[in-house]
Batch of 4 targets.
Target 1
Amino acid sequence: MGSHAKHVSIQSSASPGELKSSLLLILQRARIINLDELELYFGGEDVTDMVGFNSPRNEMEALSSILTAIAKLEGEHCSTTALQELRVVAVNSISELGEKFKEEKKVVTQSSCEQEKGLQQWGEDQGVKSQLEISYFEGAGRGAVARQDLRIGDIALEIPLSVVISENLVHEYDMYSILEKVEGMSAETMLLLWSMKEKHNPDSKFKLYFDTLPEVFNTGLSFGMEAIMALDGTLLLEEIVQAKEHLRAQYDELFPSLCNDHPDVFPPEQYRWEQFLWACELWYSNSMKIMFSDGKLRTCLIPIAGFLNHSTCPHIMHYGKVDSTKNSIKFPLSRSCNAGEQCFLGYGSFSSSHLLTFYGFLPQLDNYYDVIPLDIDVASNEDCEHTDPTSDWTSHMVRGTWFSKNHGIFHYGLPPPLLDCMRRSRSPFLQSMTLTPENLEIELEILRDLCSMFRRYEGWTRRS
């Protein structure tokens, strides 16, 4: 990392400008530490290209890690004025980031939330602690707003495990003894089949929760013919079709045999294909992966928490672990949320096609994870004397060039590993990119190939 590896010293008498400069140096390293695989791919081999802003996710993770480090130092040593002021600068940077990527959603005051309020009251009776209120938002449906000003580290929501729907719950029902004998049966599928039946149980502990669920989820999995026709020729349609074919095959493996063999446990009227698809959409769009105290990662439905909407720059990022001391799941804030402001949850680093297919919405802002995988078959050259770091990538992709920091010659706003792969397929012993006639001829060939390749994805890559 060269010059970026030197220590950062913060003087107790540091001025605001010096504190900002110190934070920037720390932030540059934190950005690199918190890079994910996608950001590494598009960043290339030169670390100096990645010390700047990479994505909202990376920036939030970097700033959050700095706050964690400051808190640790304050715990190990006496809290100094410099550390306190550095913390203020970091918190302000998070606020500025939130403002930059703020998503405006207007509350629909005339919409009733009586069922949701009933569920909230039930949850609080069961031990749920919430600083959020359920509201309807224009163009987004239900969401959660802060009841009061919440700051970084505040717990917006705490859900006891007693109201979490997880695989342990199915063990208490008759269907478990049947399903555990089915070859290849997963815990997730058991939960899906359980929810299809429990939805109709008037005595269910979770009746209020099921009553708040929509009759139609409107994800890509339930698109009608008009929407399918509009998507003709796109990669999104291909993704939706493949997902539905997979689900249909899964359904056909289970039904009607389960209904025929155990009609009392699996009533045919409750296990039709349409109901199976509804349950799939429920679990795709509302479930969360939670790490339990035994170290096992389980897929769960978490009443009330499922109302929180996704954002490119969410307030809540770290929530997937059970607090063993409280036997609950906590949702702490990574950035502040003012009273009356919608509180967003990070669903994960997903492409817009994935969000539309499995969640039923498109992000309001640019999505850094909108990538197109490329089918490039280039034989490896084991005899190459020079091995570039970017040659380690075995699969390639592209995304909007407006995310790139370098649009000059030899870069074009495209990922370095892709360009490196294409160059080495033509010149395995390529040492450096300089303005020589030979190199320029290679570049022209690559650009022609890229133009031809991108025409196939034109309908997908065009920005709306």
Target 2
Amino acid sequence: MSNITLGVQRESLINNPLLQKVELGRPLRRCFTLPHDGFTYGKPNDGKTSGAADALVWRTAPVQTTFQRKEKKAPRDFQSLNKSAVQVGLTTAQEHFQYRATHDVRKAESGTEKTIQKLKRLPPTMVFGVPTRPSTPVYDLLGHKYQDRWLEERHKAEETMRARQIQKRHVDKNIYETRASLLRKFQPPVDPPPFWQMSKFQKIPSQIESFRTDKAKTGAFKHHATDSTSRKGAFGHGIYEPAKS
């Protein structure tokens, strides 16, 4: 059964999908105005004027190497507009806005301003992308060329340093030291400061002694001095050295 509506139907009643009643077994109407029944949708196919003869001939468009010049409109001269508006007697912002809408003053072109924009076309042989990485010098790696080059550089650097030292020696050869210069450079030895200790323990003597008497201590050091000559080590505490022929 079709949807029957009494009275005069407004356009909003027909074109508004929210006012449409749902029909049983039919989808909701979207109220779109569709063309007539014989209308064909899609893009029409243009007729091809070329044939097999044109397909067998390779034709390229000529390369355009000329520049396209695009004229740029000069900017407005607001200083001149404001000056002329004040001379006329306009003071408020609204009056200035109306004056600018009816009057137009452009800045004069100078030689330094670029009024022509040049658009350059890229050549057809232009290649884009990242350049290819150069090949690895395998011959230099197998022949230890980098090592030889590094050794040569180090040898040259050492020769340069030696030449500087020799030149410095020749410069300082005629300079001799006097007693005053030696005394000026001399630094008297200074005993290192003692370790920190609490004040209440500074006056208390040590309670542990390795030797019973001073005589035993002196004898032990003398024996160590005579025995260390045949032992190894910086202080003569090592094992005995074998006899040398």
Target 3
Amino acid sequence: MHSEKKFDASSIEGWLPDAYVAAPIVPPLAVPSLPDRRSLREMAVEVSVRLAGGLALGAFAFVAWLQWSAAPERITLLLLVATSSLTVGLALFTRVPAKRDWRLVPVVVSVCGTFYFLAVRLEPGMRLIPENVGAFVCGVGILWQLYAKASLRRSFGIVPANRGIVSSGAYRWVRHPIYLGYVIADMGFLLTNFGAWNVTVYGGLLALQVIRILQEERFLASDPAYGEYRAKVRYRVLPGLF
């Protein structure tokens, strides 16, 4: 009996021309997908808002500089520009979040609460406290803002959004520490530039900031991580009060 041998094709691959040797399978190149119309629209809105914010801040800083040039002792005026630049400037370079609250009320409240400085009366007003004391109070508020915003890193923004839950740094003490810095700095400026118009502006600002805080918490309520954080840190801005 003759044993049947199986034919091994690999034994003759070296004898075959290259055209007959099986070529390796190369996966097709991945073609990057183009952004859809909605993404392009959101990108256009993002760029437009940031440009408008930068222009508004620049115009305000120029007018404030003119006022300060006429009265260089008004340190609180410079500090108002500093705290406004700190807020808007960081918002210009913050990362774009994956999810934001584009409802009308949160957007209007956030924009008005951020660009309130455009409504502040910059001309000298009544001084309820000395300029140096007001400047010190403003400085304390700005330093606290810096600490709180450094805790957020690039998670800072204007419109309510979920940029990740932060529970370290200033956020160990209250859930919205940046607003505490705003209140302190605003009080320093108001008490050294007192007047009916500025009282109205800052009174309205305080109401807007409270609404803004509540809107932010409402937006983040669906995140389980924020629920755990809220259970650990009881107060929003002022320990024992709010």
Target 4
Amino acid sequence: MSQLPEARRALLDRSGCVVQKLLPFVQDAGSALRRRGVARTLRNCCFDHRHHEWLLSEQVDLLPFLLLPLAGPEEFPEDEMERLPLDLQYLPAEKQREPEADIRKTLLETLLLLTATKPGRLLVRERGTYFVLRELHKWEGDGGVRAACEKLIQVLIGDEPEAGMENLLEVEIPTEVEQQLQHLDQEEEEGEEVEVLLGGIA
């Protein structure tokens, strides 16, 4: 459903606070289905780069909700800890990562979308995202998730794109490739987001 522009507009309506109401369900321990649906909804919303700065601002504060499921119980040096969002500092020894590999991958894909614009990259870098990803990469056993993690790390530690290419979402994608990706996503998401949006914020 969030693949449709009309649905994304409703979700991203800044007066309705719909996105903010969905965020806690990224960590709904009682339902992997709901976590998966919310993660995919957030990812689809992030395809619209015009909202990235708002999503990363204090009004929504999306970044900690994406990073916390990817974080484990590792301790960080003080200089690294200070750069992390408050919700990711001094996590307890029993902290566990999101157990479902596909959800971890979706969260990484969402973070990657948020780094598609220069302001997004700068903010995601400044808040210590690399440190969380570094530890995730050491722990991660799923090849697909590791690859997604590596791609995001490359964006965060790599050189800035050349002039005129700063917005990676404006790089043209072949129509047939885009249609294939949309078709695959639609098959996976059918039915999941309906439960999330109807049951999650009722």
